[in-house]
Amino acid sequence: MRTQLGFRHIETIHAIILTGSVTGAATRLHLTQPAISNVLRDAEERLGITLFERRGGRLIPTASADALFNEIERSFIGLESINSFASRLHKGQRSALSVASTPSFGASIFPVIAAAYTARAEKSLLSVHSRMAHHVAAQVSSGKCDLGFGLDVPDVPGVESEVIAQLPILCYLPRSHRLAQEAEIHPEQLLDEPMISMTSVEGVDPLASAAFSTCARMPESSIECPAAITACAMVSAGLGFVLFDVLPSLICDPARLVVKPFRTQSKLNYRAYRLKSKSPHPDVMELIALAREALKPYSAAS
Hints:
Elements: H1 7-19, H2 22-29, H3 33-47, E1 52-55, E2 58-61, H4 63-91, E3 96-101, H5 103-108, H6 110-118, E4 125-130, H7 133-141, E5 147-151, E6 159-168, E7 170-174, E8 195-197, H8 205-211, E9 221-224, H9 228-236, E10 242-244, E11 257-261, E12 267-275, H10 282-300
Parallel strand pairs: 3-4, 3-5, 8-9
Antiparallel strand pairs: 1-2, 5-12, 6-12, 7-10, 7-11
Helix pairs in contact: 1-2, 1-3, 1-4, 2-3, 6-10
């Protein structure tokens, strides 16, 4: 049975991958180069695999090292969080509340929530992470985030969610588009237009497909992009149309695109995700209430 790796092995492998050399790792860890080389050699002997290849004076991680690095990164993120918390305790600072959200929610709605939250009595320090919808729930499930805001995703064990808003689907078009003056866009008007699809990752594509269910076919996708803000930037560049909710329009340049009502009964559900608990943190529940309030004007428009 092979001997397991110790923390010194793990932080050495981590440092070498980040710096690309024994010299860089030694500097980062405040050790000598021979010490780093010895720890690396011992790690490879314990694992029975080669972790790095030497090329032009640099250490290039093998596929095995890359896979190991991904696992190490997850652990180091947790460790850094603990160290950060300990530092705040030492300085007498506030505790931290970690929140994950989709990019469009984080850029358009969360600043409003954060402003209302921090304007009240002394609150927890907010740590905000931008993730795709399926990663939002995963961050909560793993305990890396206390709260998540995002679109509908399949149930995740240990995580409970509640709908905080239902937003209508809108049509984003380039400002110079032939349909830019229409009061409302109908599915059949878009059949011959290039579509920037959101992929099924964010749960938008199935709703878009349902909207075209009465048509003989779907518009052809010219680009696939899971990030709504990026997709809308592509609309601004004249690359096609996007079907999404109102949130990107709150931060996009109105001089470069138009946002029109779209004829469909489908709506996008925004949810708050948190760990299942008999007594959720009061600040978590406050943030959820603030999110619901911030989204109310846009869901009311539905």
